[in-house]
Amino acid sequence: MTSLKPDRVHEQSQHSASGRIPRPPLTLVARERLHSALDLGVRSPLTMLIAPAGTGKTVLLSDWVARRRRSGQSVLWVPGQAPGALAGALEQLAGPDAAAPPDPIVIDDAHLLPTATVTGLAQILKKSPHAVRLLLASRYDLPLPVSELELRGMALTLRSRDLRFTDAEATELVQAHASNATAADVRLFQERTAGWAAALVLAARTLAASGDTGWSFANQQPVLDLLLGETLSTVDERVQAVLLSTFGAASVTGHQAAMLSGDADAGAMLGDLAGSGLLVTAYADDPGSEPLYRFHPLLVELLRRRVAGRSENAQIVTAAQHRSALYYENRGDGCNALRAALGAGDPALVARILLGHGPAILAAGDLSLVADGFESLPEGYVEQHPHLVGVRGLLRRATGDVTGAIMDAASANDLASAADPQPVTPDDNALEADAVLLRLWESRYGWHDVHAAIGRARTLLALDPTDANGRPRAVLGPERLAWLLIELAAAETWADELDAALSHLDEALVTARMAGHQRLIGGGLAHRAVVQYTRGQIENAAGSAQAALDAAGEQGLPREYAVRAHVVLGFAALGHLDLDSAWRQHELVVATDVAGSDTVVAALRAILRAVLLLEAGRLEEALTELTTDPASAGPLPSFLSRDLALLRFRMATMVGDHAGAETQCDVLDRIGNTSEAELIRAITSIVRGDVQTTLKLMDEALNRPDVYPPLASAAASFRTVLLARMGDEAAAEAALVDTLNRATPQRMLYALTPVGREPDFLDRLHRHLAGPNPHPFAAATLEQLSSYRAAWSEVGGTSLLARVRPDAQVPPPRRLDAVIDGARIRLTPREADVLDQLALGNSYTEIARALFITENTVKTHLMSLYRKLGVEKRSAALRVARAVGLTQQSPNQGGGFIPRIG
């Protein structure tokens, strides 16, 4: 080696600094934290800067050297590809007359140094470490005694993780290249590049040139190949195989990496890569937990290209995906198993997973994944493997392809029926279960007999080991079984078999919880909420409905389950007299696509809406809502007919339609709700004026054990008022306690609203609370009923108790309908008010003042009124209205407003 004296070393360093050190770019970002680290590092014999290409090593070092030069400090810069100046410097530094302390030597691209030079550096560091101050920038580790020096505090290593740009540094760098970059742009680039310098610059330049933030790694192929190609080539083939096997996963544990690659040491390899910062990052909750490894997106892109460009790499990935599919399939994770099978491109494996796990994946809401599975199969594959037709039918049902679902259901049914009794395979069981699932679904819409479908499902699920033909009962996976039980319960609910429905829902919940399938858990709870509501268990139903929504978490319930939960929560809010919340739940039901096609939900929605309209004082709209039964494939279940009849009865009594009220009693008798029919007949008997007879009839009806709880609570409050009016204090007090006892368990406040405006009931509550032993629910009841606003009473509705109040001057019900020129018309309550004011001769201003509305609103009501009466001016309107009995002064007005509700 050529010897260099100290003064010549200094001369060479100055020459290198002035002529061969790269100039810092104009877009330089000063990285003070790294400068401080380098200042600290060069106090020791060795500082290593190890990171892939494009991470900003050279820019950082050039800026650091320039700063030292400006401060008068010497440095020797040696490029790795031209190490000639280094040889003499090392010879001199190793001699007896070496300078102390020596100037630092910066070696850029040290990975390009000849092997002999690296060996010489290693020897100096081992024998005379204090003789040198080396700062080496390399793309990978070199065979130097770094660990020994680090243990002695004589070496510092900075890696990729240290060179990553912080958010503040990235902002400065991006905006230096693209002045129009926003904070949002920088955040997006940081997410995509993880602070990698070269990629940040690429993104910024693309933004500056095109104004487009949609920068993609795929558009940077030459640069990526340059930056990453060498990096990947520095690791041995075994590590490359691990990377190729695992990069398709968003993240992997060491165990999963070993499974995917088939290499038991895969986890350790990823750990080494993460430790060196080679575009693999390890995440761990605590030091003792198993780390989770994630690949830098740029590394993923390079690996993807290598797979696309080399068949041997593609084979590695395919084998990894196949192992992954088997692994997840054996663990019961159908979603990940199917994704891996699709990656492996193995039709037989895809088909097997679709048959075994397809229903579970569909129930989890991942419809597109199952659709991708079927699309990946070769043309005609399902016809050649017909066991799949049931799963395809379930997919079509879930995606709204009703025609396709019906066709597949028919095929599945024919195949299941034609199967030989022996031997029975798991595929046969799966096909039979899917056929039954589809048949239960069809039966709820009248396309097949619901009782036959229920019987077939029960046979499939029977506990006996074999059926009458000696065929073994089906053995089903927990997800398929839970879904089948939920569908069975839905059909049983429609068929009025509520006890059986609850029993099967309990089984479904146990099974779904065993499988850990949150959406099926939510589905079972949502269906149970409906059954509980139909039995008057409103508070229990609300708990089940809320638990159903909570079970699915952020993923959310499938619409057909969620709509059940929301309609039940709407009724629960109504029961608490929280009308705003009830309206919000109603709106969620209306916004759900399946709400109109599910008969049970459609009927419950109509009932909820009618009640809310009633409470809003919109009697006309409520009456319209209740004019006809909801469309259905057959007779409504008795619980829906019961609820509709009870609501129609209330509306009839409110508007004075006694014949309509009696019609609803007949309806209740006809559908088997005789206890409810007898109770409302007892209530309406008060119009005959014999209170004692009414009380006797009510006592008899209330003693029936099967009477609907909300109606029983309402009747008990009615009885309380009658006893209070009679002055029987003791009996009234006992009746009040009985009312509260009936209403409290399910917090049925809404059932008490018919007495909410009765002074006798509220006074009785006040006195009860002042007594020695008030009921726990009395205070809440008084508070809620005292603030209850019966909007229906402000537009002509009158409660039965108000009609028969001894001291009440109840005006006759306002007539709103008439026949004009052979056509029946009906006024709204507000139009009738305007007509009455018109009959008094009032002006627009006087009418507006009397009714607390604007003059424009008066004119709007008058236009509608004139249209209905077939006239164009005031005088004609009054003449026609008097002729048909629509004014309060009309001679024809007699029996009051009798809109027929039956």
UniProtKB/TrEMBL annotation:
| One example of a Gene Ontology biological process annotation | regulation of DNA-templated transcription
Domain named HTH luxR-type is located at: 820-885
InterPro entries tied to this protein: P-loop_NTPase, Sig_transdc_resp-reg_C-effctor, TPR-like_helical_dom_sf, Tscrpt_reg_LuxR_C, WH-like_DNA-bd_sf, WHD_MalT
Q: Which domain of life is it from?
A: Bacteria
Show the Pfam families listed in the entry.
Answer: GerE, WHD_MalT
Keyword field = DNA-binding, Transcription, Transcription regulation
Region annotation (Disordered) maps to 1-25
Which SUPFAM superfamilies does the record associate with it?
C-terminal effector domain of the bipartite response regulators, P-loop containing nucleoside triphosphate hydrolases
Q: What is this protein called?
A: HTH luxR-type domain-containing protein
Q: Which organism is it from?
A: Kribbella capetownensis
